[in-house]
């Protein structure tokens, strides 16, 4: 056995080997040590190899999926070796014969299909990158849904595109793996190298044509050699991991490079588009706006937020669909109720194609077809917008398949076909008979006994059973003579004579006995055969079922965005091909949602970059600058996915690229300080942004010396204005930069308003024209809880520096040299005693719960008099 294990393991040196032994998957040697640690299970030993104990651990087959998920999340790959024959067959070859085993599947992060291993509301993409000379292409597939796409992709665009997809695993040719492995790892994906032959475009084209049963790929689009190379790498890897059982793949779709808004990885993290900084959906834009009721609808929303469209006709068609759902409130509610009963059609199809599905997947498809029929009936005669009208056409035409599944399946079938009991009574006569014999064997025997009594006239005749003879007919010796004589002897066959009884059988009874004993297994075999036929019927309709899934997700997303817009009072934005960006009463959707839960209002703000394309924003920390910057970027994203937006009104000219450099972070693993990360990200913006880009920058240059930082920030803003000529929001604490508004025609100053009250700063969160008079840093530090001694010392230093700068009586260093040192053990600073006002004194004695409305009103007038 161990020789067989080592032989199989040699073919998968980089994967843990799950070696099937009865009801367990066993692991040995180093695999056992690694798995036991990762899974926190017992590590034991089994026998010896080369004089050393063999480490061993195992997991139950019935619970294997949970362990697989843990291993995949921890970066392992798992090869699953199953028993390919019944142990009884192996014993026929000899008592020491080993059961034949072979790997049936290689489980990797990008090839998961099981429902328990996947997030139903997110895609699980496997990507492949290929290069031919100076050209590159990226292909990707979600084998759990069959979606297959490809696009031209330069090396510079690879990072942003992988970040958009959130790919779990990336395939790279061996020749370029070292060049891109770090990039892939930084994005949280696993990289897998394949031999260059896997990406051969000539052989790959033939393999793709065979896969899709076509003579040429031209019917799917005009694919370049490098794009075919990337697709070939994907298909080769799927054949390796699925051991020849390819998933049900849709024909490849070629995506245009300029079809969607370009957003790099740093911007996605900064804006928390699909995942929050802390991880997970909660707190992200996706988590806040997702009101879809189907898994496919949720995945469609994620795709659109990850890649907002740049095509006006596409955006407007989506807006029309949402607007229709907003106006048709009752219809939208009915549609959402029906959609809640819809299963995940794409993933059910994929599991069935890979023979990992079951009766419950079939029942889900049946229910989805029934709901689609109801939705189509509800929409009959309704004037739909173009996008929904096209989708509605795919909801019908499935009558034959629905009728088949409805007749064949019970209402609530079991998860696995091997459990049986999922075929409805009355669907198959042979199955009904087998079940009747299995479940009602005694009554069938009783009926046969009654028939024998009637035929012989012997009322004492009985049909009995024992473990030696099985079923037999028993009568007394007195009546036996009659049965041993013609014509009854021709039917009844003598089997045994005892002291007082004689036992017979008949051909009919023997046949019935065989059928009763085998009825359970026979019923299960019949069900398995019928299951295979139903599976074939479903897969024969795979293309139209995929279209049905797409149609249902379109209705789900349109009604979900409409529900959000109505509940949150969002507006339909005007999106066109201009350079306009005019937001009135804009709000941050995520922050507003969080404040609403706390019962606090959100202060809305305007943003008009139509005339002055760059706004230089000043104001203290904590005043809301970062929220303001991000909310306008998120409004652009929402507008270009076709959604309504959180504003009173919005006019957005198409944004081609979105860049965000907000917040401080470092990259210690790669030896980059916070300032270096900031400069690398800023360089990417300045080198790539075009005149249709939207750029938001916060505190550029704050990570270095004051004059260095000011110089970098100044030059960056000038470059954005003169070279990139893009729309931008530029937040800074360098108030000196406000002078640029008078020098550059497209720059305008704006500030976040604050109010100072008795030494404290009050944040108003209002963005106004103008500049901040100062940064209020000391006041913010006080709010943060710095010790009073530190705050008072900071005030002294600040006043000295500001005085020296105003009077111009020396350099900043000279002023610093004249400051007395901060005492090592400072005297306790007595906090400034606050003198209670008359209003406060009066309010101290008021008990609000005891005031009548009239008394409360009188109190207000009294306090107003005291203020005067």
Structure report:
This protein is of the alpha/beta class and 868 residues long. It contains 32 helices and 27 strands. The relative contact order is 0.06. The strands form 5 sheets. The protein has a 7-stranded mixed β-sheet, with helices on both faces. A 6-stranded mixed β-sheet has the order 3-4-2-1-5-6, with helices on both faces. A 6-stranded mixed β-sheet has the order 11-10-7-8-9-12, with helices on both faces. The model has no long low-confidence stretch (mean pLDDT 88). Helix 25 (674-688) runs parallel beside helix 26 (706-724). The longest helix is centred in the middle third of the chain and has 34 residues, at 507-540. Helix content is 46%, strand content 18%. The protein folds into 7 domains: 2-107, MutS, DNA mismatch repair protein, domain I, CATH 3.40.1170.10; 119-257, MutS, connector domain (Nucleotidyltransferase, domain 5, 2-Layer Sandwich); 293-398 and 541-565, MutS, DNA mismatch repair protein, Chain A, domain 3 (Orthogonal Bundle); 430-521, MutS, DNA mismatch repair protein, Chain A, domain 3; 574-767, Rossmann fold (3-Layer(aba) Sandwich); 786-833; 838-867, no CATH class.
Key phrases:
868 residues; alpha/beta; MutS, DNA mismatch repair protein, domain I; Nucleotidyltransferase, domain 5; MutS, DNA mismatch repair protein, Chain A, domain 3; 7-stranded mixed β-sheet; 6-stranded mixed β-sheet; 46% helix; 18% strand; elongated
CATH architecture of the largest domain: 3-Layer(aba) Sandwich
CATH topology assignment of the largest domain: Rossmann fold
Briefly note the structural class of the backbone.
Answer: alpha/beta
Tell me the radius of gyration.
Answer: 37 Å
Profile the largest sheet. 7 strands, mixed
Contiguous uncertain segments of 5+ residues = none
Overall strand count: 27
Mean pLDDT: 88
Domain count, please report it: 7
Q: What topology, given as strand order, has the largest sheet?
A: 13-23-24-25-21-26-27
- Cα distance, first to last residue? 97 Å
Strand content: 15-25%
Q: Name the CATH superfamily classification of the largest domain.
A: P-loop containing nucleotide triphosphate hydrolases
Look at the structure and give the CATH class of the largest domain: Alpha Beta
Structural shape: elongated
Percentage of helical residues?
Answer: 40-55%
In DSSP terms (H or I, runs of 4 or more residues), the helix count works out at 32
GO molecular function, one term: mismatched DNA binding
Family: Belongs to the DNA mismatch repair MutS family.
Function: This protein is involved in the repair of mismatches in DNA. It is possible that it carries out the mismatch recognition step. This protein has a weak ATPase activity.
Protein name: DNA mismatch repair protein MutS
